[in-house]
Specification:
- The chain is mainly beta.
- The chain is built from three helices and 18 strands.
- It has four domains: 56 residues, Nucleic acid-binding proteins (OB fold (Dihydrolipoamide Acetyltransferase, E2P), Beta Barrel), CATH 2.40.50.140; 62 residues, OB fold (Dihydrolipoamide Acetyltransferase, E2P); 73 residues, Nucleic acid-binding proteins (OB fold (Dihydrolipoamide Acetyltransferase, E2P), Beta Barrel), CATH 2.40.50.140; 63 residues, Arc Repressor Mutant, subunit A.
- The protein has a five-stranded antiparallel sheet, with no helix packed on it. Strands 8-7-6-9-10 form a five-stranded antiparallel sheet, with no helix packed on it.
- Helix 1 crosses helix 3.
- The two termini are 45 Å apart.
């Protein structure tokens, strides 16, 4: 069957004035309007298209690529507000609808929101919700320490940043392990530190090798973070200046920044060291 909100690979079955008709294995047809029809094609060719509802609520195909597909999260811009809800730009001609009841806070035109895209079973329409937590489940977390995961920044908390993990779970990166600027919707590769008995996931943005960095390097990172990402000290600085800021000998300081530089966490400049964003 045709899958709304997803990419479908369909067969060209016939051509008409308004475009070409595509068909799935079950005989369901959908129109690909002329503006999206490839310059060269033949009957029985297959085409990968995205299937959704147009402004008249008719099933239609497009070769445009949306910023999100059904059952996924995306950071989208609000383009319009109506009497029934908000509309977000998701890369297609018809904007994505967000009912008022699915808005975690009242949406405003021009602002960006992290949303979850889903198929409303009552209306058979593709809609979005900014109440993202209800689409995440930590009941069964099949992850282990040091597993690499895909992360989307959700929202800050007093402890750090809440992250969407592999489009399924909610996890947390603690503030003392964040050494870069983060905004909602940012995407990262991250790593599992621990899965707690209650299903909560502790995360880190650093590669596995980071856990073996000698402790002084972590102290340098903390000081860099507190200083806005730059400190005017490097491996050529006076030992007394290094000791005053980091409480480290010059030898220990050089070893610490050397390991951070090797892992591309910092850059060493003529006038100091800087966090790499």
């Amino acid at each position: 069957m045709l899958e709304l909100g997803r990419y479908n690979t369909l067969e060209v079955v016939r051509e008409r004035d308004q475009g070409i008709y595509l068909c799935d294995e079950d005989g369901n047809e959908v129109l690909l309007p002329n503006k999206y029809v490839p310059e060269q094609f033949m009957i029985r060719d297959t085409i990968r298209v995205f299937v959704y509802l147009d402004s008249s609520e008719r099933i239609v195909a497009t070769t445009l690529e949306p910023y999100a597909t059904v059952k996924s999260f995306a950071y989208l811009k609000c383009t319009n507000i109506s009497e029934v809800g908000a509309f977000l730009d998701w890369g297609l001609e018809k904007d994505l609808f967000v009912p008022f009841k699915e808005q975690a806070s009242k949406m405003r035109v021009g602002s960006w929101y992290l949303v979850y895209v889903y198929l409303d079973e009552e209306t058979n329409r593709l809609v979005a919700s900014s109440k993202t937590n209800k689409f995440l489940d930590n009941t069964l977390v099949l992850l282990s320490s040091y597993d690499e995961v895909n992360l989307i920044a959700s929202h800050p908390s007093p402890q750090g940043w809440n992250m969407i993990v592999n489009q399924k779970h909610l996890g947390l990166v603690y503030g003392d392990e964040i050494f870069q600027k983060i905004t909602p919707g940012d995407e990262f590769k991250g790593y599992v530190k621990k899965v707690r008995p209650d299903g909560k996931i502790d995360l880190t943005l650093q590669r596995h090798g980071f856990r073996s960095i000698e402790p002084n390097a972590k102290e340098v990172l903390r000081e860099l973070k507190a200083s806005g990402g730059f400190i005017n000290l490097n491996d050529k600085s006076d030992p007394d200046d290094i000791k005053e800021v980091f409480q480290l000998s010059k030898k220990s300081f050089k070893k610490a920044i050397g390991s951070l530089y090797k892992d591309r966490i910092i850059s060493i400049e003529e006038d100091g060291i800087r966090l790499v964003e």
